[in-house]
Design goal:
The protein has two helices and eight strands. The protein is mainly beta. The strands form three sheets. It has a four-stranded mixed β-sheet. The protein has a two-stranded antiparallel sheet with strand order 3-4. Strands 7-8 form a two-stranded antiparallel ribbon. Strand 7 and strand 8 form a beta hairpin. The longest helix has 10 residues. The radius of gyration is 15 Å and the shape is globular. The protein starts with 12 loop residues before the first strand and ends with a helix.
Protein backbone atom coordinates (compact mmCIF):
# COMPACT_ATOMS: atom_id res chain seq x y z
CA UNK A 1 0.00 0.00 0.00
CA UNK A 2 1.18 3.53 -0.75
CA UNK A 3 2.29 5.28 2.44
CA UNK A 4 1.14 8.89 2.51
CA UNK A 5 2.68 11.56 4.77
CA UNK A 6 -0.10 12.18 7.29
CA UNK A 7 2.33 13.46 9.93
CA UNK A 8 3.27 16.65 8.11
CA UNK A 9 -0.20 18.15 8.54
CA UNK A 10 -1.26 16.70 11.87
CA UNK A 11 -2.84 13.43 10.76
CA UNK A 12 -5.17 14.55 7.97
CA UNK A 13 -4.39 15.37 4.35
CA UNK A 14 -6.52 17.04 1.65
CA UNK A 15 -8.34 14.90 -0.89
CA UNK A 16 -9.79 16.53 -3.99
CA UNK A 17 -12.67 14.62 -5.61
CA UNK A 18 -12.72 15.14 -9.36
CA UNK A 19 -15.09 13.71 -11.98
CA UNK A 20 -13.11 10.94 -13.68
CA UNK A 21 -14.45 11.78 -17.14
CA UNK A 22 -14.87 15.57 -17.24
CA UNK A 23 -12.24 16.72 -14.76
CA UNK A 24 -14.84 18.80 -12.88
CA UNK A 25 -13.78 19.40 -9.27
CA UNK A 26 -16.59 18.09 -7.11
CA UNK A 27 -15.35 18.66 -3.59
CA UNK A 28 -12.44 18.86 -1.19
CA UNK A 29 -12.35 16.84 2.00
CA UNK A 30 -9.73 15.30 4.27
CA UNK A 31 -8.52 11.76 4.73
CA UNK A 32 -6.91 10.03 7.68
CA UNK A 33 -4.80 6.88 7.55
CA UNK A 34 -7.94 4.86 8.36
CA UNK A 35 -10.07 6.48 5.66
CA UNK A 36 -7.22 6.04 3.16
CA UNK A 37 -7.12 2.32 3.92
CA UNK A 38 -10.92 2.04 3.69
CA UNK A 39 -10.93 3.88 0.35
CA UNK A 40 -8.32 1.51 -1.08
CA UNK A 41 -10.08 -1.58 0.28
CA UNK A 42 -13.64 -0.64 -0.70
CA UNK A 43 -13.10 1.24 -3.97
CA UNK A 44 -15.35 4.06 -2.74
CA UNK A 45 -14.25 7.45 -1.41
CA UNK A 46 -14.09 7.47 2.36
CA UNK A 47 -13.07 10.65 4.14
CA UNK A 48 -12.56 11.82 7.71
CA UNK A 49 -15.29 14.16 8.90
CA UNK A 50 -13.70 16.86 11.01
CA UNK A 51 -17.07 18.09 12.30
CA UNK A 52 -18.21 14.60 13.36
CA UNK A 53 -14.71 13.36 14.22
CA UNK A 54 -15.21 10.03 12.44
CA UNK A 55 -14.82 8.19 9.14
CA UNK A 56 -17.32 9.31 6.53
CA UNK A 57 -18.10 7.23 3.47
CA UNK A 58 -19.26 9.79 0.92
CA UNK A 59 -22.90 9.06 0.14
CA UNK A 60 -23.66 7.14 3.33
CA UNK A 61 -26.55 9.54 4.05
CA UNK A 62 -27.60 10.62 0.55
CA UNK A 63 -26.84 7.46 -1.41
CA UNK A 64 -24.60 9.58 -3.69
CA UNK A 65 -21.47 7.44 -3.44
CA UNK A 66 -18.18 8.19 -5.15
CA UNK A 67 -16.71 5.20 -6.96
CA UNK A 68 -12.93 5.48 -7.29
CA UNK A 69 -11.56 5.13 -10.83
CA UNK A 70 -8.02 6.27 -10.10
CA UNK A 71 -6.02 8.13 -7.49
CA UNK A 72 -3.29 10.71 -8.04
CA UNK A 73 -0.75 11.52 -5.32
CA UNK A 74 1.28 14.70 -5.25
CA UNK A 75 5.10 14.89 -5.13
CA UNK A 76 5.21 15.33 -1.33
CA UNK A 77 2.84 12.42 -0.62
CA UNK A 78 0.55 14.77 1.34
CA UNK A 79 -2.37 15.46 -1.03
CA UNK A 80 -4.47 13.17 -3.20
CA UNK A 81 -6.90 13.54 -6.08
CA UNK A 82 -9.65 10.96 -6.25
CA UNK A 83 -10.87 10.55 -9.83
CA UNK A 84 -14.42 9.43 -9.10
CA UNK A 85 -17.66 8.44 -10.71
CA UNK A 86 -20.25 10.46 -8.82
CA UNK A 87 -23.16 8.08 -8.26
CA UNK A 88 -26.31 10.13 -7.87
CA UNK A 89 -26.89 13.66 -9.08
CA UNK A 90 -24.45 15.58 -6.90
CA UNK A 91 -21.62 15.68 -4.42
CA UNK A 92 -22.63 18.76 -2.42
CA UNK A 93 -24.88 18.62 0.63
CA UNK A 94 -26.57 21.82 -0.64
CA UNK A 95 -28.03 19.99 -3.65
CA UNK A 96 -25.45 21.14 -6.20
CA UNK A 97 -23.39 18.76 -8.35
CA UNK A 98 -20.15 20.35 -7.12
CA UNK A 99 -19.32 22.08 -3.85
CA UNK A 100 -17.67 24.75 -6.00
CA UNK A 101 -20.84 26.34 -7.36
CA UNK A 102 -20.06 29.96 -6.42
CA UNK A 103 -17.76 32.48 -8.07
CA UNK A 104 -16.15 35.47 -6.37
CA UNK A 105 -17.31 38.77 -7.86
CA UNK A 106 -16.63 42.40 -6.97
CA UNK A 107 -19.73 42.36 -4.76
CA UNK A 108 -19.31 38.96 -3.12
CA UNK A 109 -20.40 35.57 -4.43
CA UNK A 110 -22.50 34.60 -7.43
CA UNK A 111 -23.98 31.13 -7.91
CA UNK A 112 -22.81 29.62 -11.19
CA UNK A 113 -24.96 26.49 -11.26
CA UNK A 114 -28.41 25.35 -10.25
CA UNK A 115 -29.17 22.66 -7.70
CA UNK A 116 -29.57 19.17 -9.12
CA UNK A 117 -31.42 17.57 -6.21
CA UNK A 118 -33.53 18.64 -3.23
CA UNK A 119 -31.05 18.42 -0.36
CA UNK A 120 -33.71 18.92 2.34
CA UNK A 121 -35.70 15.98 1.03
CA UNK A 122 -32.68 13.69 0.50
CA UNK A 123 -31.19 14.24 3.93
CA UNK A 124 -34.54 14.37 5.78
CA UNK A 125 -35.48 10.95 4.41
CA UNK A 126 -32.21 9.45 5.67
CA UNK A 127 -32.61 10.62 9.29
Amino acid sequence: MVELDFQKSGGLIPAVAQDWQTGEVLMLAYISPESWTETLNSGYATYFSRSRNKLWKKGESSGHLQKIHSILVDCDLDTVVFKVEQLGPGACHTGHRSCFYREVTGDGLRETEQTVFDADKVYQEKK
